[in-house]
Amino acid sequence: MITGIIGIGNMGRPMSQHLSDVGETLVLWNRTAARAEGIANATILSTPRDVAESADIILSVLANDVAIASVYHGPDGLLKADLT
Q1: Residue 36 and residue 17: Cα distance in Å, rounded?
Q2: What is the pTM of this model?
Q3: Are 58 and 42 in contact (CB under 8 A)?
Q4: How deeply is 55 buried, as exposed, middle or buried, from its count of CB atoms within 10 A (0-12, 13-18, 19+)?
Q5: 33-70 tens-digit pLDDT
């Protein structure tokens, strides 16, 4: 199973690190990609849409309503993913 995590900040990074430590395969996205660097078993993707199209399950750990709207409804947001 591939786990996608959107938002690699104060909560998302420790969650990602723990999942990596127990052997999960991860795909990650963060507005600032460098925040996701150094996590084993993880691939950093370019857009939230890429995460949705690559992961079996997605966790979003976002700071506020503006971030949520952008990540879900933006031009390359989660809701633009082709899940067929």
Answers
A1: 10
A2: 0.93
A3: no
A4: buried
A5: 999 999 999 999 999 999 999 999 999 999 999 999 99
Query: What's the one-letter identity of residue 71?
Result: V
- In 1-84, beta strands by DSSP E: 2-6, 25-29, 42-44, 57-60
Written as six digits, the tokens of 20 are 């990596």
Contact in structure between 61 and 42 (CB atoms under 8 Å): no
Distances (CA, A) of 10 to 2, 14, 17, 30: 22, 7, 12, 12
Q: State the Cα torsion 66-72-2-23 to the nearest 10°.
A: 10
Confidence band of 10 (pLDDT split at 50, 70, 90): very high
State the Cα–Cα distance between residues 36 and 44, nearest whole angstrom.
Answer: 7
Length reported for the chain: 84
